[in-house]
Specification:
Elements lengths: L1 H18 L5 H23 L1 H11 L5 H21 L3 H20 L17 H6 L3 H27 L2 H4 L13 H16 L7 H16 L4 H13 L8
Helix pairs in contact: 2-4, 2-9, 3-4, 4-5, 5-9
Length: 244
C-alpha cells in the first residue's frame, strides 16, 4: 500500500507541482471573461439611466430606485475596469456578487434556470435530474417539448412566408428563457476570484502588493515578520495572488 501511495504522490506532485507556476492563468481568464460582461452591462445602464430608474421603481418595485440604479450601473462599470486591470479584485468581487444575487432573485428566478430554453429534452442538463425523480426537472423537460414545437412552427412559417435561409444565416432561432443561469455562473466566477484574488504577474494587485511588501520590509525589522508570514501564505496558495 505504501508503495502505491508513494507512486501516486510522485506522479501527482511531479505533474501538478509544475502546473502551480501557471496558476495565475485561471484568475486571469476569469477576469478577462467577466470584465467585458460587466462593462457592457454598466455602460448600458449608464447610457439609459432614466429607463433603468423607471424599471427599478415601477417594474421591480425597488425602494429608492434612483439610488439603486446608479449603484447597479457604477458597480458594474467600475467593477468591470477593476477586473480588466486586476485592481482591487477581491474588494470589487463582493459588490458584484451582490449585484448578481439581486438580479438572479428579482429578475430571473421566476423563469427557472436556463437562459436559452432547451428544445431537445434528451440533451438537456435537466434530463439526469428528471431521471432521479426531481419534479422541477421533469417540468423542464416538458417545457423543452413545448419549446421544440414552437420552434418547428416558427421554422415552418419562415419557410412558407419568408426567406428562411436569410433569416437563419447568422444562427438558429431560439427561445430566450431569461433564467438565472448566467447570473449564477457570474456569481460563481466572482466567488472564485474572491478567494484567489487577481492572480500573479498580470495584475495591478500583484504589482502593488509586491511594492507595498517590499516597502514594509525595508522600513524596519518590526514589520518584517508579518510580511514574511503573508508571503509564505501566498506561496502555500500556489502563487495565485498577492493581497490587495
Amino acid at each position: 500500500m505504501n508503495a502505491i501511495l508513494r507512486s501516486y504522490y510522485w506522479l501527482h506532485d511531479g505533474l501538478f507541482g509544475r502546473l502551480r507556476h501557471l496558476a495565475f492563468l485561471a484568475p486571469l481568464l476569469m477576469r478577462l471573461y467577466l470584465a467585458p460582461v460587466m462593462l457592457a452591462a454598466g455602460l448600458y445602464k449608464a447610457y439609459h439611466i432614466d429607463e433603468i430608474i423607471s424599471w427599478f421603481g415601477q417594474g421591480l418595485g425597488f425602494p429608492e430606485p434612483v439610488l439603486m440604479a446608479y449603484l447597479a450601473a457604477y458597480t458594474e462599470l467600475v467593477g468591470g475596469f477593476c477586473l480588466l486591470f486586476g485592481l482591487a479584485v477581491r474588494w470589487v468581487s463582493l459588490p458584484l456578487m451582490i449585484t448578481m444575487l439581486v438580479a438572479a432573485v428579482t429578475v430571473h428566478w421566476q423563469h427557472g434556470w436556463f437562459t436559452v430554453a432547451p428544445s431537445e429534452p434528451m440533451r438537456s442538463v435537466a434530463k439526469p435530474l428528471a431521471d432521479i425523480g426531481i419534479p422541477a426537472a421533469r417540468d423542464s423537460l416538458e417545457n423543452s417539448l413545448d419549446v421544440a414545437r414552437r420552434l418547428q412552427r416558427a421554422e415552418a412559417l419562415m419557410s412558407e412566408h419568408g426567406n428562411g435561409d436569410w433569416l437563419t444565416e447568422k444562427g438558429s432561432f431560439a427561445v430566450i428563457n431569461n433564467g438565472i443561469e448566467q447570473a449564477a455562473t457570474y456569481f460563481i466566477m466572482l466567488l472564485a476570484l474572491l478567494f484567489t484574488g487577481a492572480g500573479r504577474w498580470l495584475s495591478l494587485d500583484d504589482y502593488l502588493d509586491r511594492q507595498a511588501r517590499a516597502a514594509l520590509v525595508s522600513s524596519g525589522p518590526a514589520s518584517a515578520p508579518a510580511v514574511r508570514s503573508s508571503e509564505s501564505a501566498d506561496s502555500d496558495a500556489a502563487g495565485l495572488t498577492g493581497d490587495e
